[in-house]
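User: I'm new to structure prediction. If I give you an amino acid sequence, what do you actually give back? Let's try with this one:
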Amino acid sequence: MIFFNEIERIQRLHKYIMLQKTGTPDEFASRLHISRRQLYNILDELRDLGAVIEYSRSRYTFYYGNDFDLNISIKVTTLNNMENRLVNGGFSYSVQLLCTEGMYLCLRN
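Assistant: Good question. You get back a string of structure tokens that encode the predicted 3D arrangement of the chain. For your 109 residues, that looks like this:
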């Protein structure tokens, strides 16, 4: 599922930045199997969440300039009949995934 792949990619990106072992922007993007532009878009999103992300030209690595930590959790629950009708118009079964940023993903059977 694309959603879970994106979460895993962001977690890997965060780990490499924490370890200060990203390499150049081109190397880092290649390691994550994304374009350089996509890399910078994700970094901008992390900056919007409060991360100070800097790049060292002498060490060839991105690093956090503040104490930033990224914690992504997923909660899977079944919806009761009333919630189910409100979310997806009456389908009989639904699973709701809630991310910490308040994004919802509903999978229907």
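You can read the tokens as a compact description of the fold. Here is one thing that stands out. The chain has two domains: 2-64, 75-108.
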